[in-house]
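Sorry, I am new here, but would you mind making up a protein's amino acid sequence and the tokens describing how it folds?
***
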Amino acid sequence: MAKAFHVLTKPTGPICNLDCKYCFYLEKENLYSDTSQWAMPDDVLESYVRQYIESQRAPVISFAWQGGEPTLLGVDFFRKVVRLQAKYAAGKKIENGFQTNGVLLDDRWGEFLAENGFLVGISIDGPERLHDRYRVDKGGAPSFRRVMRGLGYLRKHGVEYNTLTVVQRSNSRHPLEVYRFLKQAGSRFMQFIPIVERESPQPDDAGLVLISPDSAEPARVSPWSVDSFQYGKFLCAIFDEWVRRDVGRYYVQIFDVALESWMGMAASLCVFRETCGSALALEHNGDLYSCDHYVYPENLLGNIMEDPMGSLVNSPSQVRFGQNKRDRLPRYCRECEVRFACNGECPKHRFIRTPQGEEGLNYLCAGYKLFFNHIDPYMRFMAGELRQGRAPANVMSWVRRRDLQAQGRRRPGRNDPCLCGSGKKFKKCCGRR
């Protein structure tokens, strides 16, 4: 029986109807240069569904469908997925996550996703001018309005969804504009994913320009990659607004994961765990890779049509891959005051040197140090509330009292947010009493 693990499934491989300029996965098409049929074959799909369910002890099995763009396969492909899951469930509860750019969503998709309880992640990088900076189609045309139309179908049919925002060099300079737009668009659950890629001067033997994370070859950080310190400022700005107004109403993944760390729990997000290796990627033909960010020939574990998935997940090379995250952490990181929350983040980003010259420092280190130190007092308060059986949202009134004290005031003004956290103005809430 394999250890608990998670697979990002790519039933269309890297094939997509958009041509996002920062996408690291589009060029993976070069790994399968002889492929003409990109849809996952029926025998591979059935074997995957069966093995994934059988390989885990957990009573709830979560499938994650990504790409490329999975909607290119059509609704009928995923009806087949649901039938196979029911066939092999063996009493286990099955959940499905579905990541999409939203362009092809319509009523048929909305009805299917709602009927089968899919949780949909929809990619939106902010308001129109920021989203369309990089997220364009194959003809270079903007995608924002089509994405928002697709989001409308999710809302129309009551599909549960969250938003995934890639934080890149452009939108990272406008944190509150991005955050407020997402709230206005109806997103209550948000993910902010930093984009960091390195480009090689020449393609490698597999035709890949974006360099392998472990490569020592000369490379430059791509022009669309987010600046480290700016990413930290981006998170801090959004956190400062969230912690004063939105706790318990809007949920930001990295804030929730940080609270886990301040509670002494293991992070639920792999990039902040001490070790990794339990979040793998499955290509359309059954090839299993160590990680979604490590889809390179040297990280191919095998094919599930030739070797059992459980044995590949527990193979010595994959175990070593996961432990390297901890074992290769530089001394600078091991002695860092926020290591408990960061753990060196994703190994993919560990390509700069520490101030002492040691290799393996995370490119985003400066940003994370800024962010985790900034949120420390608020996280301490929320963790304390949780331990006492009280709501973490109490942090909002605590912060407002601190703000008033800093301003030399003892009570809020009539039009200030009420200290009780209701979201109303003081004059229309506790101030009426």
In short: Residues 61 and 94 are 5 Å apart (CA to CA).
